[in-house]
Amino acid sequence: MVDVSAFVAGPTCGLYLAQMGAEVIRVDTVGGGPDFRRWPLAENGSSLYWESLNKSKKSVAIDLARPEGRELVQRLAAAPGENAGLFVTNFPVDGFLSYENLRKLRDDLICVRVMGWADGSQGMDYTINSALGLPLMTGPVGDDRPVNHVLAAWDLLTGAYCAFGLVAALLARMRGQGGREIRAPLSDVGAATMANLGFTAEALMTGHQRPRMGNDLFGAFGRDFQTKDGEKLMLLCITPRQWSKALEALGIVEAVKQVEADLGLSFATDEGLRFTHREHLYPLFERAFAAKTAAELAPAFDAGGVTWGAYQTLEAALSDPRLFKGNPMFQDIAHPSGKTYPAPGAMGTIPQDTRGPVTPAPKLGQHTDEVLANVLGLSGGEIGRLHDAGVVAGPAA
Amino acid sequence: MVDVSAFVAGPTCGLYLAQMGAEVIRVDTVGGGPDFRRWPLAENGSSLYWESLNKSKKSVAIDLARPEGRELVQRLAAAPGENAGLFVTNFPVDGFLSYENLRKLRDDLICVRVMGWADGSQGMDYTINSALGLPLMTGPVGDDRPVNHVLAAWDLLTGAYCAFGLVAALLARMRGQGGREIRAPLSDVGAATMANLGFTAEALMTGHQRPRMGNDLFGAFGRDFQTKDGEKLMLLCITPRQWSKALEALGIVEAVKQVEADLGLSFATDEGLRFTHREHLYPLFERAFAAKTAAELAPAFDAGGVTWGAYQTLEAALSDPRLFKGNPMFQDIAHPSGKTYPAPGAMGTIPQDTRGPVTPAPKLGQHTDEVLANVLGLSGGEIGRLHDAGVVAGPAA
């Protein structure tokens, strides 16, 4: 599979495939594309972002501004073979990597194209997100400033969806249905998802988007609460069981019964009532959390099967055995930046299989010669000429 | 494919497959599971969330608390056929829908299992997210309260990744590699993603997580700015081209040159310098935005190829032709709630193909009899007995 993309969506698509065992060839322009120096950086200027998103891939450096370089990329994307002719890109629909151009080289080519806006105009995660209303629904009540997400959720979702689309298209091709292009614009992924989760139906029915409500869980009971020692814990009670277990662990069963009696209703089986009347419930929960330390609450919550979580920093998470420390998904490996740090393999675990080694990102251009020889069948002399002409490059010395 | 799951991750996995043409059978317990009444609701109490997440699926209602019902679900999950024996669930690893149990019925079964924490303990999107540090990186500077995301990003990413994993496993099975279980815990998806984006490497190197910085784009230039008429626009300048185009459109080329001269550096080719010195740059941008209305800036930005976006509400987005209005991905259809509103088909567009009709979610139990007869080969008498015994149910009258 050939990955000619930048930033998050396209590269994660390639990453997921590489970590499932596919040979993924990432093509960058000589010297690196727009994401090659993306922060965070190591002290030597090497991008921790680029090397994290391109693990387990091969790297080919080709001058994408020159016709001869462009032709090489087209031939790589449309390379022959049952498991080749698989291509992910975020290059323009109508540029030199258009589906029409590539299809001339291989009729059953599969191309997955990440786009910004569906009409082909420039859009990135942040600007699509600002158009969907979410930043106006996010953040503390009483502060009307838009709050962007820090996690590029639309990019990530689009990347995983492209990996799905690509493999589904490969399956169809194996079944004799030929190739296809699948276009995945962030704007369509965003619009479809807002609809799939019911946000748009809600806005159509109420006439306005869901109001900003801080960390309150919409339509059920949940929020962050502060413990005696100032820790913040997130509590979720959607199912009847989650609700009853939380009340028991907090020792507020009777107090909630009193609220139910006062209001003439029952919270147990109707999560929505808990949301509607949450202002009556919050004081009980706030007092119960404030009466105990996080260290006292945690074992009671866990013993009772309560759905809760502590807010912690990422540096704390790094020593959390549930996430990073000792997680078999992670292995300590040496990266192109010269740094050695833990990196994850595939996000899915197959319990029957032993996890293979996590392999680092390549150096830029590390596999240029190998790929040109093996995939395109170029001779040593031809490859040498391309180097001399500056059309391709190997790794920096 | 059989989908016995609730909430977002599992159901979106099934939805993506259904919208790519797979027959997806969603199994709920009789009367509906924990997400069947999830908000938002229509006036009649029907869940707009459930019906949006289960479009294009078949619905079977089986009492999951009874042994006879459980056995039926096991047989459905492990049904024979080249395109069957495909199963997505968020049920416990070691419960009646364990891989070991199902594998006894079909050795090459493919099972994708959404989990909360990788150790099998309860976790949902919000509680995994609170453990990863993101809510402490999100939101306005100077307000230290955690800010949860409103979009269930981990759920969504996990769902799309599961769809990818399931199709990849099917491909492997077609190639003679047998079946497998793929476990996708939200905690592993979260931890891997924080690493894939470089967040963890950064925290390991600096000793702390990325500080909260409001809507500032990390490592490059970007933020929301306010126009003369009080609109908020997001601006992004990562590439040299994005930077130069924005300066031109805002008429601040010379002013920025002066800052560069004062500081003795050049912003053009080093996005990181723009970030490091952003406090010197913000006043120029703030003044330029404040001098014009959004209606004046928009055409200048678009003509110049600037990467920008306006913050708008979801109700405004609904009439935005780039997102919802007239988007061929959406069709106006009648839903089980009795409401007619636009719903999307597949998030990916295949330009060669005409989009088929978007099909609504089923009524709960709508396909119980059909599926029991066609997939399990039960006779009419047997199905009748199951109804009489309350083990299965059809749609409410």
Task: Please describe what this structure looks like.
The structure is a homodimer of 397-residue chains. Chain A is of the alpha/beta class. Chain A is built from 17 helices and twelve strands. Chain A has a seven-stranded mixed beta sheet with strand order 6-5-4-1-2-3-12, with helices on both faces. In chain A, strands 7-8-9 form a three-stranded antiparallel beta sheet. A two-stranded antiparallel sheet of chain A has the order 10-11. In chain A, strand 7 and strand 8 form a beta hairpin. The model of chain A has no long low-confidence stretch (mean pLDDT 97). The interface between A and B is large, with 146 and 146 residues.
Order of helices and strands of chain A: EHEHEHEHEHHHEHHEEHHHHHEHEEHHE
Number of strands of chain A: 12
Task: List the quaternary state of the chains.
Answer: homodimer
| Largest inter-chain contact set | A-B, 146 and 146 residues
Report the total helices of chain A.
17
Strand content of chain A: 5-15%
Question: In percent, how helical is the residue content of chain A?
Answer: 25-40%
Mean pLDDT of chain A: 97
Intertermini distance of chain A: 27 Å
Helix and strand content put the structural class of chain A at alpha/beta
**Main β-sheet description of chain A:** 7 strands, mixed
Brief write-up:
Two copies of one chain form a homodimer. Chain A is built from 17 helices and twelve strands.
